[in-house]
């Protein structure tokens, strides 16, 4: 089948675009997205997420639908008709939670409806979105069957290969991360595995069932979440004891099997979300997950905790809290990345504002209009906007490289404080760190 693969990638965000670009090095690929502005941007060789560099993207772009010629390359489109000749559909849409932290499968339902409209006999639909075990076969497949009129595992087939994209990471790119694969039948599993193995240089692991692959993905980030929650709790305890948490972790880390986790804010579209998907499925089965939800509660509380620690530090230095000027460095969910989805830096900002502090947010990576739209927070990308300003407190919330190159004392009142959430600044420069 190798020579006949025609791949349509549904959703061209942080996951879909790098995957589509990779497959386009060997196969005809159409990247489909309902956002016409995104399509226009990509066909011009530009990616505002910065996951795929301009020259790399342009190297695979083709000017017209490659399915007709069968030649490899990437064409991006918002026209559903143009993907109807695909025989491999890969769904890479987001799977968020709602305001009550319940899984929101709306993007998956809608994308399944989209694929169902163009699905043909013999096609394979592969999902990459993070879900709880059972979503592919129990939620998505019925939508495909209803819209297409085709019968699952008779007329069309399915696979699941969970995404392992790490936004902003230029070392662990999609082809360098081992990929878990699965199929709705053993034979389809082999086809899906062969397809991914043809482009993933790190190799693949074929799971025995789709549900096993779904479960493997959702516990990857749940495990990290729980481990970070543990060290966040340690940070709270050691702060009460006036012990440097990072020094404790450095000492404990000399043991060969000690796991190197650090305290911090847990946001983003994976670690801060995926555990809720597993918890939801467990609760549907009548089991209340104690450790998973305890870890989530603790990690979700850290933004407010950091804000209160900053206020305590200001009080200890006799700095008036009400109206104090704070420079917050960073609003993305992680360093060297423009992604602001589910960022917990916002919790710190809003926590400080609750104490009536005046917060200025500077982030050279985050688009101010996106930050305002998502969170109602004013931010700036321009360092010039800070010229001549002095602050009572500087809070390093995100470890962007640009911040490490700043002389923070230039922006600090003589009696001001520096609070290092990330624990990366020299100890002699700061007043407190998480």
Task: List its salient traits.
about 35% helix, alpha/beta, about 425 residues, 6-stranded parallel beta sheet, 14 helices
Structure summarized in a few sentences:
By secondary structure, this protein is an alpha/beta fold. It contains 14 helices and 14 strands.
Can you describe what's shown?
The chain has 434 residues and is α/β, with parallel strands linked by helices. The protein has 14 helices and 14 strands. The strands form 3 sheets. A 6-stranded parallel beta sheet has the order 3-2-1-4-5-6, with helices on both faces. The chain has a 6-stranded parallel beta sheet with strand order 11-10-9-12-13-14. Strand 9, helix 12 and strand 10 form a beta-alpha-beta unit. The protein is globular.
